[in-house]
Amino acid sequence: MPEKKIIIVSNRLPVTIQREDGNLTFKPSAGGLATGLSSVYRQGNNLWIGWPGLYSQQEAEKDLITQNLRNDHMAPVFLTEEDVHEFYEGFSNKTLWPLFHYFTEYAQYQQVLWEAYERVNRKFCAQVLQYAGPDDVIWVHDYQLLLLPSMIREKLPNATIGFFQHIPFPSFEIFRLLPWRKQILEGMLGSDLIGFHTYDDMRHFLSSVSRILGHNNTMGLVKKENRLIQVDSFPMGIDYEKFARGTKDPQTIEKYKRYEKLLSDQKVIISIDRLDYSKGIKQRLKAMDIFFTRYPEYIGKVSLVLIVVPSRVKVDQYQALKEEIDTMVGWLNGKYSRMDWTPIHYFYRSFSFHGLSALYSSAEVALITPLRDGMNLVCKEFIASKLDKKGVLILSEMAGSAKELSEAILVNPNDIQQIVDAMYQALTMPEEEQIARNEEMQNKLKRYNIHRWVEMFMEQLEIVKQKQTELELR
Ligand code: F6P
């Protein structure tokens, strides 16, 4: 009997291919998911299926890419420009992303985008079917592929299918606004196991399944026709050791020394996100303004290092937000700067691992205040990087990670006054208190790291499949 394969499917592959001077370059992703799953997809005949990040029309080039990826256990789904425009920038990021993050006013409901979403999910399905055997394990990731589990199930009824949602699942009152709400739920229910970061997301999903499709659940177990579907929460962790070790790396130390010299005599607050309206970046900048007005003694003594990583640059709201942030930073720096001090150090680009690691270890405060976030891993990376356990995390209650990191200073990201108070509390917090809080959080993050997250999901997937087999034997 052939060995069972595990196939990971996500919109993006853990590598991005680019065309530079006529040559193809392969850039591996350093993200948490890629790290956590590398122990899975690189084994045996396992593989990862996804979009390689470039448009390719020539068959010879597609063959070359396919061959190269195959050597590293990956298989590409080639998308056209139209697919990317309508499926990725379109239904995924103009409909689902805003709706699932409670930005209902941004969500667009266009039939053409929905059709593209279905079409591209089918493309992914076709590629999965090229490789998957009838009893293989298939783990689908995230909101771009919500229809894929049932598309695969239709063709491979016995396959073991897991699905993990990396972004929030909204409450029923929000979800029901979606014209294609039934199809989306049916698509997800093709899985054997559906995972969310938090208990609340899981509860919201189950409530929609019950109220829209009429399927009730017992302890997260949904019975649909002759199938059992388990729904559960699995808070995603980070590669703790990578960040803890990273701070001792000579390249990090070199950058750390440079930052310390440049920002000497100053307390540093860091803010690191993709450019996204869900992250609360404008609210954070407003809080900085009020903070300097209310506590002028900190002028010249505290600065914000604001890293905003370019994202979804072709989507209107992202372009508009970029302009607003540029304006606000310019205005704040114009208002408060001195010859020898700048309040906001603004970087519109991504940082290397060592750059981030140096910033995490040198910053006194991390200000992570998303208006809504599935999990947020930056706050976990900050805590893991604090070898001396000194530093304060200000964290939004609306981030999934707030459920685990209760020792952070938790704030409502819409309450600017509360953010200002939290900044003052963070900058004046006694060291013993910082150490005590961070020690607690570090212990949790060490235990529930990314590897444990993968194991827990896979173990649970096996358990559901056993329950399903028992049900069929009865
Ligand atoms: O948080 C959801 C997510 O899709 C992540 O998986 C991904 O890292 C991030 O958003 C950015 O996504 P993209 O650049 O593919 O739109």
Automatic annotation (TrEMBL):
Q: Which UniProt keywords apply?
A: Glycosyltransferase, Transferase
Q: Which reaction does it catalyse?
A: D-glucose 6-phosphate + UDP-alpha-D-glucose = alpha,alpha-trehalose 6-phosphate + UDP + H(+)
Which superkingdom heads the taxonomic lineage of this protein's source?
Bacteria
Q: Name one GO biological process term.
A: trehalose biosynthetic process
The portions of this protein that span the membrane are: none
Q: What is its EC number?
A: 2.4.1.15
Pathway info: Glycan biosynthesis; trehalose biosynthesis
What Gene Ontology terms describe where this protein resides (cellular component)? cytosol
**What GO annotations for molecular function exist for this entry?**
alpha,alpha-trehalose-phosphate synthase (UDP-forming) activity; trehalose-phosphatase activity
Q: How does it assemble?
A: Homotetramer.
The Swiss-Prot or TrEMBL record describes its family as follows: In the N-terminal section; belongs to the glycosyltransferase 20 family. Belongs to the glycosyltransferase 20 family.
Its name, as the record gives it, is Alpha,alpha-trehalose-phosphate synthase
Organism this protein belongs to: Rapidithrix thailandica
- What range of the intact protein is shown? 1 to 474 of 728
